[in-house]
Write a structure and sequence with these properties.
The chain is mainly β. It contains four helices and 17 strands. It has a 16-stranded antiparallel barrel with strand order 1-2-3-4-5-6-7-8-9-10-11-12-14-15-16-17. Helix 1 (5-19) packs antiparallel against helix 2. The chain starts with a helix and ends with a strand.
């Protein structure tokens, strides 16, 4: 037997009415559809009349609800804050093959564990993201990674982001971001690996902030139409970097994600970046950014000697320029940075501040068809500096050429193949920090989005 809402109400009313004294009850409230000037009906005196009155009232309410639904009005209870959270993510499985017999054994790519003969096949990223506007003025974002490393090479679950954007106005043009998030320096650092063409970020820009993230607080401003454009550049598949404001200023600890501050001093950072939409709807973004602070280097013995370093920190500051022509269909990216960074001396005895510089240039062409989106690309990656996050901050020299193609078969499946020729690259893992030269490799990556 099936029961509808009206039947249940009538049955309940009958049970209550049977237990009441046989006296006239107060008149039922007038239906919203009843004109206010209409005389009220006489109050029912019998149980049957009272049930009939209740049934008429339910029918009138059902009719009014049906009319509201025809007009598109939905009767919904207010959403709880947790109902406003979305869950999404992506995964990357990567395989790398070293080509030829002349590959030197000291080819080491710190960000890519698959460039390693015993390992080769790895879970590069396993990201799960919770985010949403939990109130009119608060947006929260939490990202975790199932492919993080604890130092031994094993995979572990680790926090990548945990922050809140606190809106200062109704249009959310001004906001303050607090928590663990990406440091607003460089365009490619802010671009998600879910959107990037190259399977790893270029060393010169990525050497600014390990994992691109740190604990910090930033003021961000962007007019509403620009925020909408930043969002559209990502959603439309044009490889956007996301919304980090037109103007951003703030501070971060400077030691990297999931690490405590070591000297009680913060790094200061500022960034200006503006996207211009051309008449043909293609977008050009120009940016400039800089940061300054003192970085505390982790030291370890090299042979019988441990390098000496200022325990309060070594000067760490850079500026960078950005040019991006978003692919539609042709795309071009170029970033370069200059500055001073902690670096191990040539005699391996001290760590001082030294000049660094480097960047990348990348060209791409996006082709959309029935088989999906194909984007061939080529990139030159150059760095002459130091890897400050490694023990003893060894000098790091990189000169590589990448040639690849990304195939987005569907919105949730991407395949990337990238050939890399290494002109030279420093092995920053162990002293005496030799360079690998004239090496070749191919990286294959499957990415699934959800």
């Amino acid at each position: 037997m099936s029961w509808n809402c009206s039947s249940l109400l009538l049955a309940a009313a009958a049970s209550v009415a049977a237990a009441l004294p046989a006296q006239a009850p107060p008149a039922p409230s007038v239906s919203p559809s009843t004109p206010a000037t209409q005389d009220p009906k006489p109050a029912p005196t019998t149980i049957e009349d009272r049930l009939q009155a209740l049934e008429d009232h339910v029918k009138a309410a059902d009719a009014e609800l049906a009319e509201l639904r025809k007009k598109g009005v939905k009767a919904e209870s207010p959403a709880k804050w947790y109902d406003k959270l979305s869950i999404r993510g992506y995964g990357q499985i990567r395989y790398t093959s070293l080509l030829g017999e002349d590959n030197t054994p000291n080819l080491n790519v710190p960000a890519d564990r698959s460039v390693n003969e015993p390992e080769t096949l790895v879970l590069r990223r396993g990201r799960v993201i919770l985010s949403g506007d939990v109130s009119e003025r608060v947006f929260v974002y939490a990202q975790m990674d199932f492919a993080a490393s604890t130092g031994s090479g094993d995979q572990a679950l680790q926090m990548r982001d945990f922050y809140a954007d606190l809106a200062l106005d109704d249009d959310k043009e001004s906001r303050v971001r607090v928590g663990n998030s990406k440091v607003p320096f460089g365009w490619v650092n802010l671009q998600s690996s879910q959107n990037r063409l190259g399977i790893e970020r270029p060393d010169a820009i990525n050497s600014v902030a390990e994992g691109e993230r740190d604990m910090g607080a930033y003021y961000m401003w962007a007019p509403k139409h620009v925020r909408d454009l930043f969002r559209d550049l990502v959603r439309s598949g044009r490889k956007g970097s996301g919304d980090y404001g037109v103007f951003t200023v703030g501070a971060f600890t400077g030691q990297g994600p999931n690490r405590a501050d070591q000297n009680g001093e913060v790094h200061a950072v500022a960034r200006v970046s503006y996207p211009f939409e051309l008449e043909n709807k293609q977008v050009v973004e120009l940016g400039v950014q800089g940061y300054t602070g003192d970085y505390v280097v982790t030291t370890a013995a090299i042979g019988a000697t441990t390098p000496t370093v200022d325990t309060e920190g070594v000067t760490d500051e850079r500026i960078a320029a950005t040019f991006v022509l978003y692919p539609q269909p042709f795309g071009l990216e170029a970033e370069w940075n200059w500055g001073t960074s902690p670096q191990l001396s040539d005699n391996l005895l001290t760590i001082d501040d030294e000049y660094v510089q480097g960047g990348y240039v990348q060209a791409s062409y996006m082709m959309k068809g029935d088989s999906g989106t194909w984007t061939p690309f080529t990139r030159w990656n150059f760095f002459d500096g130091a890897r400050k996050f490694a023990r003893n901050a060894p000098k790091d020299e990189v000169n590589e050429l990448d040639i690849g193609i990304e195939w987005q078969a569907t919105p949730d499946i991407e395949l990337t193949m990238m050939y890399t020729h290494t002109f030279w690259r420093t092995d920053t893992s162990t002293a005496p920090f030799d360079r690998a030269t004239d090496d070749d490799r191919i990286g294959l990556q499957v990415q699934f989005n959800f």
